[in-house]
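Hey, I'm writing a tutorial for new members on how sequence and structure tokens pair up, and I'd like a real worked example in the thread rather than a made-up one. If someone can provide the structure for the chain below, I'll link this post from the tutorial.
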Amino acid sequence: MLTTDTVTRDALGVLQPGFTGVTAPDWLLRRLDEGLGSVALFARNIESPEQLAALTARLRDRSPRLIVAADEEGGDVTRLESRTGSSFPGNHALGAVDDPELTRAVARELGRRLRECGVNLNWAPSADVNSNPDNPVIGVRSFGSDPELVARHTAAYVEGLQQAGVAACTKHFPGHGDTAVDSHHDLPRIDADLNTLYARELVPFRAALAAGTKAVMSAHILLPAVDRALPATLSPAALNGLLRAPESLGGLGYQGLIATDAVEMRAITATYGIERGTVLALAAGADAICVGGNLADEATVLRLRDALVRAVHSGELPEERLADAAARVRALGEWVGSRSGAAEGIASDPGIGLAAARRALRVTRLAPYRAPEGPVYTAAFTPVANIAVGDETPWGVAAELRRLLPGTGTGTYRESDAAAHGLPALVANVLRSASDRRIVIVVRDVHRHRWMADALACLVAARPDSVVVEMGVPQAPPTGALHIATHGAARVCGRAAAEVIVGNGAGR
């Protein structure tokens, strides 16, 4: 016999919704009383560490075992420091250094800061193997293209984060690295066979499970070798099969919490709709439904709660499956609650992020280089930011160069400028703005953007003494008198590059 109150409470318990504002809205507090087990924080909810700590304390006063989640990868994807840029380099920089102890230390310090602010579940690390260099959404969020390298750093990251009492949520299962489509916009498809998946995509996830990751996030990607019809988030073959089944049956044997990537992403909503997608994800084996990056209101929470309750009553979603999912959420809430003092025993290491960013630099001197004695001109060739990164987070080297070389100028140049006025006009504009100052050309994934590569080539031909700073995946050959690959666009990566440009840093 169905117990409606229990079903409704469990339906709320499996949701991880976002909300607007920097204080807790009344509707959210009411739903916590009714069984909501998690909340999701985004940049819009965070003004300062002090404000965030007060917000999470208010939420936890209402629900002591509440899971407070955030997407804080460090590097390009930051919520704690979305207005300034991250104090930590991202995965690609850590993979370039390839020192698992450093990765563990960075993750531990990041976890300490999260826990200090009351965040106890981090949707990180990305365990994706960046096997497709044209990937528009992973890129520098991956430790690299070698599965074993990605595996050892994924494990180190999980261990460091959880030492600070923050649950790791390893993503994006079964692996988002071999895609040419961003699942925020459409449904990516990976045509790799099962042997390739086991030898490449699944290697880092095995390492994460061995390291004790408390959660795994599913990806909205179609893998016909696993399921010809349904994306992984909605696929029993991917979640109950590939991820949960015993190793003797070809699975990874994982029994912890599975969270979905945001269900409002178009890879789900364009075909299934948000309510239907939520029901299918739970039925497939997911335990927690992430929602609220865009849909952050009470109406969305109630729609999804009611859709789950209706699905139980109709028999589409077994009550036992919903209860099992809610129990896993509560179990994770107990774990993070029991680890509330973990961060207090970890010594602060405020310089670890910059130290890691400096070690990640790869500097190529293609001509004799002398540091500028006066101000320079920074030309930032800026691609459209993907949704995971967002366009509110500053990046580049201009701010640091202005600090080190007062009078430094900067200009931002986009594909739309080249399209509207022509590439020669864009290049002429840079040269005119720079005048006789040294030009520092900042690019991001130049290998993926033809307009950027063409503009770069023209500028270097006109000014061979230019410095080039690649802040994405350094796939293209080095160019310029001095070429610096930062392996990411975090604030500390820009600072490390600026130090080399002015002659205060050596790089590698």
